[in-house]
Amino acid sequence: MVTTAQSVARYRIVKSTSLGDSQIKLSGQRVELDEIAHALLQASKEKLTNAHVCVRGTGTDTSLVAFVVFSNDPLDEEVDRITYLKQLRQRVPLPQYMWLSIMISLEELPLNVNGKVDRKALDVIELPNSSVDDQVLVDLDEDEMTLLGMWEEVLPDTAAKGLKITKDTDLFEAGGNSLSLVRLQSFIKERLGVQVPLVELVESCSLEAMARRLWSNRLVSSSHFTWEGEATIGDAGRIVILTGASGFLKKQVLQGLVLSSTVSEVHCIAVRSQTSMEKLNAIGSPKIIVHTGDLTLPRLGLDIITARSLASRANIIVHNGAHVSFLKSYSSLKKANVGSTAEFVRLAKPRRIPIHFISSAGVAGFVPRNELPLREVSVAAYPPPRDSSAHGCQIAKWVSERLLEKANQQYGLDIVLHRPTGIVGEGAPGADILDDLLHYSRQLELAPDMDGWDGYLHLVDMEAVAQRMVALLASSNVSETGPGAVRVVHTCNAGAFSSP
């Protein structure tokens, strides 16, 4: 990492450094910090007038930090200084264990009362910190996401945690050191089975270049495979992300996924209440991993590391969660019901993870009567009324469907829109008017007066809906070739009856 600071303190410039008074041991090697500073000055060819190197962190978190001062004839632009220091760090003739993690440009180096560099003053200068912006994540491909996860494991705790890591960020710019590089090489070999020489990692230090180098070496490594050993059916199954797992239909879907031999993990996310968490844990399946959160939160409440991990590993997303209230307007429900859909698009985009969205046959409520029944097509031609104070849940489903259709057009995501009709059966919510109608009709042994009713009643058994959904999920996977498609699935009763 390189950075600049216009002014830290007003002290006179020191023209030289003394050697031999700052010896440390790093990775088992004797290191003269002033020797590194001297090498920097020599390599700069008088573009730098002073340099001082210090140590931050301890043990495996040790980083070498250089503070430098440019000559009285500095480069014209601040950004050019940063570029110059990046290039200087790469060409300075230092052994691997003496590589610098961070270079910071100061107007002057602070001095103590004896006229020497005030090391204590330098030690308290706050280093810029590195982090990963949410927006950057959606621009990383699978190899870059995998590599970024390993970077975060090997970077020292003292690494700069505010610097925005992008495709162009290199490992040392993010605060890494030679030991970080050695550990990264080891992780790549252990986890990916690819041997990458250190010199190649150094030559390809940016996240993007290193990922490309990794892919190149992976292809080369294939020549060492035992092909009969490769032709073995592994135990790894699909990893599913599921929202709304504690709801009535969702529980049926969850149970179907748990029983499926093709599913190895089900990550239930945006679980709000302790009661819901206890119900999920009570199922007792090792496949279920529960994540607390909320549909209204960024990343649905997942921390950035967990979100990145799921984005790099998941095979299917099942968005089955929503805030349900037939009294609330669309504006009240938008953040939870539509915002959560947008969050899933961001998570799915890098690897084009298929999204199964549990919509509702209620979106047909916006179709003119003379055009009913609604076929398994887009509802784009049938927008909701401008007044969003009523039908909030239906409008939110309509908007989410359109959002996902646009995600397919822009990013090639594979989308399946499930539109179940009136779901009835044991466990259906008491707020469902059709299920209530059936319940009290049975209790009273009476049928409702249907005079004046118009249309069809589609009642479908909850278990049948769940079984069909699970079957469709089994045929979905991350699209490796070409863009995905949008598929609309109506789950309804073929024996629907008309009224009157």
Automatic annotation (TrEMBL):
Q: Where is the Carrier domain?
A: 138-218
Q: Does the keyword field hold Endoplasmic reticulum?
A: no
Q: Which GO terms describe its molecular function?
A: phosphopantetheine binding
The reply to whether Cell membrane figures as a keyword in the UniProt entry is no
Q: Which Pfam families match?
A: NAD_binding_4 (PF07993), PP-binding (PF00550)
| Alphabetical keyword list | Phosphopantetheine, Phosphoprotein
InterPro entries recorded for this chain? ACP-like_sf, AMP-bd_C_sf, FAR_NAD-bd, NAD(P)-bd_dom_sf, PKS_PP-bd, PP-bd_ACP
Name it: Male sterility protein-domain-containing protein
Q: What organism does the record attribute this protein to? A: Aspergillus caelatus
Q: What is the lineage of its organism?
A: Eukaryota, Fungi, Dikarya, Ascomycota, Pezizomycotina
